[in-house]
Write a structure and sequence with these properties.
alpha/beta; nine-stranded mixed beta sheet; Arc Repressor Mutant, subunit A; single chain; D-Maltodextrin-Binding Protein, domain 2; two-stranded antiparallel sheet; elongated; about 40% helix
Length: about 300
C-alpha cells in the first residue's frame, strides 16, 4: 500500500508529461512548475518504484523497458480519471484527440473517406492522422491506434481484425501491350519488376511451382519505392509488374486500369489487416474506443479474386 503522503496521480501526470514533451524542462513549462521540482519528483518516483524509468543524456530521454510499461499504464489511468470526470460533469460523449497511424495505400483509399462520417457521429473528437508505410512504435510516435497490414509482431499491443486480403501480381494494359503478357514463371526474367525499398523478411516474390510447393523467385526491381501508393501509381503508369495486396488493386482491376497476371501460380497467401492499440479494451479512453469500434464496423476491404 502506498504511503498516505504519496500522491501517485501527480507522479503519473508528471512522468507522462516528461515522456510526451521529451524532456524535464519542457514538462516543467507545460506544468508550470520548476525544472528542479520535476527532477526531484522523477527521482523520488524511481526510488519508490525501485526501477529506472528513463535513461537520461544531454540531448534526449529514452524510456527503459520498465519506463515504457509504466508510461502505458499511467497514461491509461490518467485517461480513465479524465473520462470519469467528463461522465459526471458533461456526459459520456467521446471527446479529445485520437492520434492515428496507417500505411499510405489503405489510409488514402479506405481510411480518409471514412473521416467525415466519423466526425459527424463524434463531433467532439479530433483526429491526428499520419500516413506512412514504415512500421512505427506507437509509444515512440505517441499514437493511440495504428492500422497494420501483415503479421503482427509479438508485443504488448492489443489488436482487432479489420479484414484480410490476398496478394496479386498486376500490370497496366499499356505495359502488357508493349512487353507482352507473362504466362510462365520463366517469362518473369523478361519483365521489369516494381518493389519496395524498405526492409522485409522476404524480398523475393512467392509463386507456386510445378510440384505445388511455394518457391521464392529472385528478381531485379526496375524501380523501388517506400510506400504502397507509389507502387500502385507506378504500375498504373506502365512502369512494370507489381505485386500488391488485392485491396489496393481491386478498384483498378475492376476499372480495367490494372490487369492480374500469373494467377495460375498465385500461392494464395493472405495478408491480415488489424487495428492495434495500447492497453486493454476495457481501459481505453472513450475517444479511442469509439474510433476503433467505428473502424471495425465501417472499414471494408475491397478485394479481388479470379472468380469475381
Amino acid at each position: 500500500m502506498a504511503r498516505p503522503d504519496v500522491n501517485r496521480s501527480t507522479e503519473m501526470e508528471v512522468f507522462v508529461r516528461v515522456v510526451e514533451t521529451g524532456g524535464l524542462s519542457a514538462a516543467a513549462r507545460a506544468l508550470r512548475i520548476t525544472p528542479s521540482a520535476v527532477s526531484k519528483l522523477m527521482a523520488r518516483l524511481e526510488a519508490r518504484l525501485g526501477a529506472r524509468l528513463l535513461n537520461r543524456s544531454t540531448r534526449k530521454l529514452q524510456l527503459t523497458a520498465e519506463g515504457a510499461a509504466f508510461y502505458a499504464r499511467s497514461a491509461q489511468v490518467l485517461a480513465d480519471i479524465d473520462e470519469a470526470e467528463r461522465e459526471v460533469t458533461a456526459g459520456a460523449a467521446p471527446r479529445g484527440r485520437v492520434r492515428v497511424n496507417s500505411n499510405m495505400g489503405l489510409g488514402r483509399q479506405l481510411l480518409l473517406p471514412l473521416v467525415p462520417d466519423f466526425l459527424a457521429k463524434h463531433p467532439e473528437v479530433t483526429l491526428d492522422i499520419v500516413l506512412t508505410d514504415q512500421v512505427v512504435d506507437l509509444l515512440d510516435e505517441r499514437a493511440d491506434v495504428a492500422i497494420r497490414v501483415g503479421d503482427l509482431q509479438s508485443s504488448s499491443l492489443m489488436a482487432r481484425k479489420l479484414g484480410e486480403s490476398r496478394s496479386v501480381v498486376v500490370a497496366s494494359p499499356d505495359y502488357l501491350a508493349r512487353r507482352g503478357v507473362p504466362t510462365t514463371l520463366q517469362d518473369l526474367a523478361g519483365h521489369d519488376q516494381l518493389d519496395f525499398n524498405f526492409t522485409r523478411s522476404v524480398r523475393n516474390w512467392p509463386f507456386l511451382g510445378a510440384d505445388g510447393e511455394v518457391a521464392y523467385l529472385p528478381g531485379v526491381a526496375a524501380v523501388q519505392v517506400g510506400d504502397g501508393e507509389s507502387l500502385r501509381e507506378l504500375a498504373l503508369a506502365g512502369a512494370g509488374l507489381a505485386r500488391m495486396s488485392a485491396f489496393s488493386a481491386a478498384r483498378d482491376i475492376a476499372a480495367g486500369r490494372l490487369v492480374p497476371v500469373l494467377e495460375a501460380f498465385n500461392p494464395g497467401d493472405v495478408l491480415e489487416v488489424h487495428v492495434v492499440f495500447l492497453g486493454q479494451g476495457g481501459h481505453l479512453p472513450a475517444r479511442v474506443r469509439a474510433f476503433i469500434d467505428f473502424l471495425v464496423e465501417n472499414l471494408r476491404l475491397p478485394n479481388w479474386s479470379p472468380e469475381t
